[in-house]
Amino acid sequence: MADETPESLIPYDEIVQEALRDVVGRVLRVVEGGGLPGGHHFYITFKTRMAGVELPKQLAQRFPDEMTIVIQHRFWDLKVNGDHFTVGLSFGGIPSILRVPFAAVTDFVDPAVDFSLKFQASGAESDGHEVHEEAENDAPAEQVAAADDGSNVVSVDFTRKK
């Protein structure tokens, strides 16, 4: 008997990735219908060049490959559809609406309960973007920490007020 595993003709990896992306959609639907329960909040990282991603030009320039948004204090109009979600967020005090296909999501994290999912982005990329400028997802002023490390993650102080 051979010790080699035969190559699968069933795309198990793709099926699992799709099922896990459905988890993200279901979680966002809970928030869409009733707001964030308890201390839950989300970091959602996505590929900005994926087909179907819509974001303001200045954000596309700032984050030419990948971007992380925070769904916590200041967001509005969260809408979840079959293959994407839209959400209103403020960046540098400028309100913006983002459209993110679930296929573009690479990370979903809820630090309040130490839950995270990691994905491979699936789908075609759109045309490239230009050189970028600074932009951040706004959080309450007392919780914003300056991110000098050049990362694309907004730093937030997660201490809870008693």
Describe this structure in words.
With 162 residues, the chain is α+β, with helices and mostly antiparallel strands. It has one domain: SspB-like (SH3 type barrels). It has two helices and nine strands, in the order H-E-H-E-E-E-E-E-E-E-E. The protein has a four-stranded antiparallel beta sheet with strand order 2-1-6-7, covered by helices on one side. Strands 3-4-5 form a three-stranded antiparallel beta sheet. Strand 4 and strand 5 (94-101) form a beta hairpin. The protein is globular. The N and C termini lie far apart (64 Å). Residues 127-135 and 140-162 have low confidence and may be disordered.
What are the main properties of this structure?
162 residues; alpha+beta; SH3 type barrels; three-stranded antiparallel β-sheet; 2 helices; 18% helix; disordered C terminus
Q: How do the SSEs run, as a string of H and E?
A: HEHEEEEEEEE
Approximately how much beta-strand content do the residues carry? 25-35%
Average pLDDT score: 79
The 3D shape can be described as: globular
The low-confidence runs, each spanning 5 or more residues with pLDDT under 50, are 127-135, 140-162
Which CATH class is shown?
Answer: Mainly Beta
Sheet with the most strands, sense and barrel status: 4 strands, antiparallel
Write down the domain tally.
1
N-to-C terminal Cα separation, in Å? 64 Å
DSSP strand count: 9
Number of helices: 2
Helix-strand category: alpha+beta
CATH architecture: Roll
**CATH superfamily annotation:** SspB-like
Radius of gyration: 17 Å
User: How much helical structure, as a percent, in the residues?
Assistant: 10-25%
